[in-house]
Amino acid sequence: MSAILARAPCKITQTSRRGYTTRTTAAVAPPPLAARRSGSALAQRSSFAASKIGSSFVQTTRTHAPMRSSRMCVEASGDWVLMVNDVAGKMGTAVVEAAQAKGIKIAPYCLTGPKRDPITIGDVTVELFDTSFDRDEVMQRIKKEFPKLMVIDYTVPQCVNLNAELYIKHGIPFVMGTTGGDRDKLLADVKDAGLFAVIAPQMGKQVVAFQAAMKIMGDRFPGAFKGYTLKVTESHQSSKVDTSGTAKAIVASFKDMGIEFEESQIELVRDPKEQVERMHVPEEHLLGHAYHTYELTSPDGLVSFKFEHNVCGRSIYAQGTVDAALCLMSKIDSGSEQTLFNMIEVLESGDMR
Fold first, then answer.
1. Which InterPro entries match (predicted)?
2. Element (H, E) at 348
3. Out of 144, 148, 240, 289, which one is annotated catalytic?
């Protein structure tokens, strides 16, 4: 498939899939996707549309507001650059802000669902490639522009496996913050591919520490709560359609401690009125919160335990996600034999800022 824009001589860095060792060779590569006309108030961008005519793609021209040069996002071809899918979402925006606060460079592109205009976050303007684009072509071009590219995924549950397959195909390491999808298939696909990734249902470091403590209890004290009954309630913003992955993980630990309980028994609270009156969620955080309550009661009803972890806003997840990306970068650069990690392993590694 021919490039749309004229090519210019440059150097590219080639990487091996597992070791990510680098070597520099003379080559030609397409210019940045964000190329623009000097002195123009509007940028003319050429791109591939997803529709086909025979075996070739239709070339279209789109007009957008001017974008900052991608050179602002990367000083050298060997530097790591984060691509966040999707910055149009609240979590994506929060992750970009957290990454910028830690001095991490952000790619000026991302994948999105519906067609959207470019979004400016801090010092970077991000071009959004919607479903009308050929995503294989987009990822190939972005990977050529940024050889050391890493993706953070905060999209929607139904895209988890499709996106992971895309990252695997192009050898792009990633952090999967999106919950849902076929998790067994996701883990198996990434492991079989030998691709570096962090996959976890919970990215908040402190919540993960609590989750790890519960797992240790389950491993070391099997049957400690045998005969007890368990009630689990979780409240999230109404846009979250799936059951909390954190709640599922904690339930698994309680089951190891002897409690009979099924994931289907987890109560999901999504009604804003009930969230305020029953769960005591502040109204200003109805659109972004995560409240979890686990109540255990002895067979005779005379003994009870209650665990809670309540989060308002998204900063705890964004900061943890960026730390997971930093950890993954460190593992790749050090030639780690292990390629697939969870957040407990991220905490244990100490590769965080």
1. DapB_C, DapB_N, DHDPR_bac, Dihydrodipicolinate_Rdtase_pln, NAD(P)-bd_dom_sf
2. helix 343-349
3. 240
CA-nearest of 348, 306, 307, 299 to 324 is 348
Whether residue 280 lies in the annotated active site: no
Q: What is the dihedral of CA 336, 339, 340, 341, to 10 degrees?
A: 20
Phi and psi angles of residue 12, each rounded to the nearest 5 degrees, phi first: -125, 155
Continuous segment of H or E residues that includes residue 100: helix 90-101
3-class secondary-structure state, position 109: strand
**What structural domains and CATH numbers belong to the chain?**
68-199+317-349 (3.40.50.720), 205-313 (3.30.360.10)
Catalytic-labelled residue, pool 105, 144, 236, 289: 236
**Helix residue spans in the chain (DSSP H):** 90-101, 135-145, 160-169, 183-193, 205-220, 245-256, 272-277, 315-333, 343-349
Peptide bond into 86 cis (omega under 30): yes
Angstrom distance (rounded) from CA 62 to CA 84: 22
CB atoms within 10 A of CB 271: 13
Between the alpha carbon of residue 178 and those of residues 163, 174, 240, the distances in Å are 10, 11, 11
Q: What is the pLDDT of residue 282?
A: 97
Q: Would the pTM of this model clear 0.85, i.e. be above it?
A: no
Give the pLDDT confidence of 273-284 residue by residue, as tens digits: 999 999 999 999
* Rounded Cα gap, residues 87 and 153, in angstroms: 10
Mean pLDDT of 51-60: 30
- Per-residue pLDDT reduced to its tens digit, 302-349: 999 999 999 999 999 999 999 999 999 999 999 999 999 999 999 998
Cβ atoms of 261 and 254 within 8 Å: the answer is yes
Write out the two tokens for 4.
């749309």
Q: How far apart are CA 173 and CA 325, in angstroms?
A: 9
Give the list of residues 6+ apart from residue 162 with CB closer than 8 angstroms, or none: none
Confidence band of 14 (pLDDT split at 50, 70, 90) = very low
Beta-strand relationship, 56-64 and 43-53: antiparallel
